[in-house]
Amino acid sequence: MGKTEISLLGEFGLIRRLTENIRLSNQSSIVGIGDDAAVLDYSGREVLMTTDLLLEGIHFDLTYFPLKHLGYKAAVINFSDIYAMNGQPKQITVSLGISKRFSVEDLEEFYEGLKLACEIYGVDIVGGDTSSSLTGLCISITCIGEGEKGKTVYRKGAKNTDLLCVSGDLGAAYMGLQLLEREKTVFKGEPDFNPDFAGKEYLLERQLKPEARKDILETLSREGIVPTSMIDISDGLASELLHICHESKVGCLLYEDRIPIDYQTAVMAEQFNMNVSTVALNGGEDYELLFTLPLELHEKIENMEGVHVIGYVCDESMGANLIARDGTEIKLQAQGWT
Amino acid sequence: MGKTEISLLGEFGLIRRLTENIRLSNQSSIVGIGDDAAVLDYSGREVLMTTDLLLEGIHFDLTYFPLKHLGYKAAVINFSDIYAMNGQPKQITVSLGISKRFSVEDLEEFYEGLKLACEIYGVDIVGGDTSSSLTGLCISITCIGEGEKGKTVYRKGAKNTDLLCVSGDLGAAYMGLQLLEREKTVFKGEPDFNPDFAGKEYLLERQLKPEARKDILETLSREGIVPTSMIDISDGLASELLHICHESKVGCLLYEDRIPIDYQTAVMAEQFNMNVSTVALNGGEDYELLFTLPLELHEKIENMEGVHVIGYVCDESMGANLIARDGTEIKLQAQGWT
Fold it and tell me: Are the beta carbons of A268 and A203 closer than 8 angstroms?
């Protein structure tokens, strides 16, 4: 692939090059890129709005993160926030701060991933801002989605006795990150970073190309189920569960032995001498959905593919607790960056 | 003022601290900060969406840019984009990447400016993302505004023979920047950066605390005038005018002697040995409105306070040209970053 210096195109040339083949597909997208603002029509619908900032060195390491994957992930993690409101993502704006070492082709690669994610999830790119950066790559995406009035699901609706459910499995993205970081150290200094990841593909995919759980919402919708509360797992199960408890003013009981963990995650945690439950509780970047449902849906949800009941909602006075494998109760604690 | 290390509060504590007294005031703001996405209601209205990325060292220098002013400006430049569509800004999300050298109080100062701008322009802060940054401060704001259906004004509506109008005066923000940069060099190494700016207040204000021209839209609206095309001047008059010509498929004649320039701007340009017209054409950051109107509104607009007719729209084949003071015709050229 060629390496065209960005200065050859200039700001406007670069924007044109990156966005020239972007087409709008949603009825609500009236006008996209090319004016001061995008124009959208959301008559009769709720507008959902979310934003995420990704900074090089903090959220991603380009040593092992291919730019196409990064573009894909940057889009998907925003879609995940809209799904977590029981909505459908429809438009995004994309702002990039770019340092000198990036070529036009690098950015095209990033946009390729971005566009692929948008195509798969049915989202339009409607605007953005592109700027030079003195240091690393800076990515800011804002996503607008639509919600059906009365069906938007918040963090705050969980009720005492509700079932606590989670989609997919947890901890794999974090183990994928550990694996990549380890190999990076091993390969330090060697020009071609190409380690053997056979048998660990799932962990890498969860880290490098996560998916948002649109499918789970479709399944729930087919069954006529609207969760009482919902959140997506970006910071780790423990942290998100505490958000739901805090916003809903409830407590919860989470069973350690019910937390869904993939075989590769467990094997890798053992290799790294980590407690796999801690990984699942605090690892983050899973982008699975954590939600609550009325107790009477127990049978229906137990038979639903890709969903696991991991505990119960209880009264606020009981607090948020983990029931460990040995039956002891441990107070849940959150982790964020400091 | 105290200096609280951000690590003392942690991510969630910091977000809570910065956002705890944010109230929603717009009817369209259903739910703001605190869930995966904000929820808005735009029934019967068009949704306008715009975004801006500001990076330390590229867009601002904290040596002379007070954080409160920076917060104010970061918000206002987004509002300006919504006004340039003939819309009203209503909600923003604010993402910040923060390096270790910032204290909680620093960020509170930034938010103070942000909130002041939002209060003055009637905008709600409905979400955002806060992250640590390895390097400088990174600010990404996305603004949502409402447009009346059929009254949204694009860059593309200018017609042959239309009047070319601009609000306020141009070049002052750029001269303010030059002044600040010069004083910074002079004061290099001295701990207290406090130069005497007497008589140059207007230039500094235009750079450090710009306003968006909501008032011009109100005046136009009172007169029942809807521009045929409009854009806000962030990159400089020449660049924005070329955008209008390109999008509208027209040419234009811009008269150098009609370009509105403040006395302080002219004096400072002379001191810096700069051509004041070049400053007004390419300086940028004026956040004035550039718009076109049908020729028959000539008398009405000539008497409107704060608006200047600076030229005419002509056929595309004639190109976009500046008529210099001596009558010579010069082809207009854009400048962006490279």
Answer: yes
User: To probe the interface with A, which of B19, B53, B62, B287 has the most A CB atoms within 10 Å?
Assistant: B53
8 Å CB contact between B286 and B192: no
ipTM computed for the complex: 0.88
- Calculate mean pLDDT across residues B213-240: 95
How open is the CA angle A321-A326-A327, to the nearest 5 degrees?
45
Of B58, B93, B336, the CB nearest to A142: B93
**Could you tell me the fold of the domain covering A6-147?**
60s Ribosomal Protein L30; Chain: A; (3.30.1330)
Interacting residues of A87 by C-beta distance below 8 A, sequence separation 6+: A46, A48, A145, A146, A147, A148, A152, B37
From chain B, the residues in CB contact with A144 under 8 A are 47, 49, 144
Query: Mind listing the pLDDT tens digit for each residue in A63-96?
Result: 999 999 999 999 999 999 999 999 999 999 999 9
Mean pLDDT of B71-76: 97
Q: Which residues of A touch B10 (CB under 8 A)?
A: 336-338
Chain B residue nearest residue A234, CA to CA: B36
E strands, A42-123, where?
A: 46-55, 88-98
pTM: 0.90
> What's the rounded Cα separation, in Å, for the pair B8 and B3?
11
Main-chain phi, psi angles of A27, to 5 degrees: -60, -35
A148: nearest Cα among A280, A252, A42, A66: A42
Q: Tell me: domain A163-331, CATH 3.90.650.10, correct?
A: yes
Domain layout of chain B by residue ranges: 6-147, 163-331
Q: Which two tokens stand for residue A263?
A: 């075989």
- Mean per-residue pLDDT for A29-35? 72
With an 8 Å Cβ cutoff, is A311 touching chain B? no
Distance, CA of A301 to CA of A310 (rounded, Å): 11
User: Cα(B62)–Cα(B70) distance, rounded to whole angstroms?
Assistant: 9
Chain segment A206-228, per-residue pLDDT in tens: 999 999 999 999 999 999 999 99
